[in-house]
Amino acid sequence: MKEYFKSIPNIKFEGAASKNPFAFRFYDAERVILGKKMSEHLPFAMAWWHNLCATGSDMFGRGTAEKSFGETPGTMQHAKAKVDAGFEFMRKLGIQYFCWHDVDLVPEADDIKETNRRLDEISDYILTKMRDTGIKCLWGTANMFSNPRFMNGAGSSNSAEVFAFAAAQVKKALDITVKLGGKGYVFWGGREGYETLLNTDVALEQENIARLMKMAVDYGRSIGFKGDFFIEPKPKEPMKHQYDFDAATAIGFLKAHNLDKDFKMNIEANHATLAGHTFEHELRISAINGMLGSIDANQGDWLLGWDTDEFPYDVYTATFAMLEILRAGGLTGGINFDAKNRRPSYTYEDMFHAFILGMDTFALGLINAAKITEDGRLTDFVNERYASYHKTELGRKIISGNTNLRELAAYAEKLGVPSQPSSGRQEMLQSLINEILFG
Ligand code: XLS
Ligand code: NI
Ligand code: NI
Q1: Cα–Cα dist 365/295, whole Å
Q2: pTM of the entire structure?
Q3: Ligand 1 within 6 A of 188 CB?
Q4: What pLDDT digit, counting tens, does each position of 138-168 carry?
Q5: Measured in angstroms, how far is the CA atom of residue 270 from the centroid of ligand 3?
Q6: Catalytic residue numbers?
Q7: Is the distance from the beta carbon of residue 296 to the nearest atom of ligand 1 less than 6 Å?
Q8: What is the DSSP letter of 310?
Q9: Is 309 touching ligand 1 by the criterion CB < 6 Å?
């Protein structure tokens, strides 16, 4: 069997003092933290598109990275070489899962029947690799944003024929997800939005997206898909207004259309910041609604207003994200590196450096989040801050729903003025975090 990344060894944990660039300093798969192995807390996944397909091309220039893997792009030989290279890559890093779009796996043909035949062929091949390595499918999805037919969206297209093609792609992507034993199926509404209200029937578009999702649930369940459907919210890019703006919007949409039992959120860090939120905000909103499913791990750049999809490097953000994930009792999905190398980092070595960075950053996040959890002072502070709802008769009446405006108004009048709420102590708490992390 051809080895694609010959110069790169299996990446092992060597500890913080290691100077080896091809080793983990913090990610130690077997280390037990809060009763679970790091590898169970951190079900890492490789994104087929960024890692095996993207060459670093952008609006201003063509690719810098060579991803032909010795075959001609656009052929099934190339598709198979990507499978071989991808599995070697994941095995060398100890990555347990992968995620894909239909058109990442095979070149799209002019005729959908031929594309589907290619998907059957490649998924047979992927299955043999999965059996050999034990690596699993985290989720699959249909790319309903690259082909020009989706210029106005997929479920939200103005064209019923395009809607039918979207349905056909979702059906096939679900077939392949089930065949590969995927834990989830993702809807990222790439072009499900609009540019101008002047030409858009927003109500019909949103209802049609819900119809497509409902059909996906019905079909998926009918072929034995037991996993979660995920919505991956994003506020903009490529469209000006995207309907799944953020977690709160997507959750409201799912509830309005009775889809909330089958769907959870797939939260992407860079999408959170594009929506004007922190990553941890989106995780918290999902978790408190019982819908924290999976994450797309990456980070944006505060100076750039788009989805730069950088590998996670910011340890504070990873710490607060892992704190939310621990509080929620873990993810039903996993941690998919929807991230790409910077364009000038174009070699095979850089692909490994990027994953080492991302995996070590999340390992640090987990280690730190466990320390904050075990320390307990943060939780105690928050509990104490809301004590008036738990420790007084008035508070208990309010949160159990056993009072009304008349009774509360009478209470307020008797009181005259409320006592001062306690200080938020933000700066003290930030110092506390630094003490736990670096003390
Ligand atoms: C794009 C999205 C996309 C989804 C999968 O911004 O992050 O990559 O994760 O379609
Ligand atoms: Ni994503
Ligand atoms: Ni994204």
Answers
A1: 14
A2: 0.98
A3: yes
A4: 999 999 999 999 999 999 999 999 999 999 9
A5: 7
A6: 101, 104
A7: yes
A8: B
A9: no
